[in-house]
Amino acid sequence: MITAKHLTKSFDGYNALNNITLNIEEGAVLGLVGSNGSGKSTLLRLIAGVYSPDEGIVGINGENSFDNPKIKSQIIFLADTPYFFSGSNLKEMANFYASMYSTFDYNMYNYLLSVFPLDESKRISTFSKGMRRQASLICALSAKPRYLLLDEAFDGLDVVMRRTLANLIFAAIEKENMTVVIASHNIRELEEVADHIALIHKGDIIKSGSIDDLCSNVHKVQAVFNDGFDEENLNGLQIIKTEKTGSVYQFIIRGEKEEISQKINSLSPIFTEYIAPSLEEIFVYELEVAGYDVKNIEQ
């Protein structure tokens, strides 16, 4: 299990992470969502042991990651800009990974070469952005780490390759019980891969949980009422946001759908419609509740 407790990290007086506490279960896929500069990459680097925390602890199964070769041997971290040795080709980088990770599997490497059609003898510096990303993923997945940390894993990949990567991750989880953490500012990319999501903004975790729980607990309701309707009649419901267009009210309400339906139906509405909000919409609502200006947040 990956554990972070009261984790804080600052750079030149700027708090990249503020007292973060987070547990990531074995075999899970956690998506870290947030705008640029929200703290996603910093958290990945702390888990990987690249950075040392200013306060708090972070590690694997009770052992700190930083300056710990035993723990680091179980982790592969791929940064948003993949790094390769100058002038190297894919075969040479694979051999390097094999020298660092005893779990490196050349059979898997050869299989991945058939999935990602790259020339292993060609200099990686000549590859496109997407091809470099594929090369880094080939090396990482061939090493069969217990913990795979990916920063903007899908960046530069086309639709087919994104789906291929997702399937490879699922297969590794099933066969190796690999734990995966993927950071992205694109929520839609993570919905198909992650089973848990954490929303990070300005160094804080605003919301986290399984996708099913996050989506089932927030509802968008449109309703039309008879004249004389008073919003105070909905007191007792956890209303996140209310908008009115003409005679149509739109409510964003947190809670159980049955309880919400009973309360609204008791007011004898002329019309009601329940619309399942997207995960992206839910996070926008949560940020608004937390007092953040979502207009200035990249989605």
Walkthrough of the structure:
Helix 6 links the parallel strand 7 (147-151) and strand 8 (179-184). The radius of gyration is 23 Å and the shape is elongated. It has two domains: 2-211, P-loop containing nucleotide triphosphate hydrolases (Rossmann fold, 3-Layer(aba) Sandwich); 217-298, Alpha-Beta Plaits. It has helices at residues 40-48, 69-72, 90-100, 106-115, 129-142, 159-176, 187-191, 211-216, 257-265, 279-289; strands at 2-11, 14-24, 29-33, 55-60, 63-64, 75-78, 147-151, 179-184, 196-201, 204-210, 218-224, 238-245, 248-254, 271-275. It has 299 residues and is α/β, with parallel strands linked by helices. The chain is built from ten helices and 14 strands.
Can I get a quick summary?
By secondary structure, the protein is α/β, with parallel strands linked by helices.
Map the helices and strands.
Blueprint: E1 2-11, E2 14-24, E3 29-33, H1 40-48, E4 55-60, E5 63-64, H2 69-72, E6 75-78, H3 90-100, H4 106-115, H5 129-142, E7 147-151, H6 159-176, E8 179-184, H7 187-191, E9 196-201, E10 204-210, H8 211-216, E11 218-224, E12 238-245, E13 248-254, H9 257-265, E14 271-275, H10 279-289
Parallel strand pairs: 3-8, 3-9, 6-7, 7-8
Antiparallel strand pairs: 1-2, 1-4, 4-5, 9-10, 11-13, 11-14, 12-13
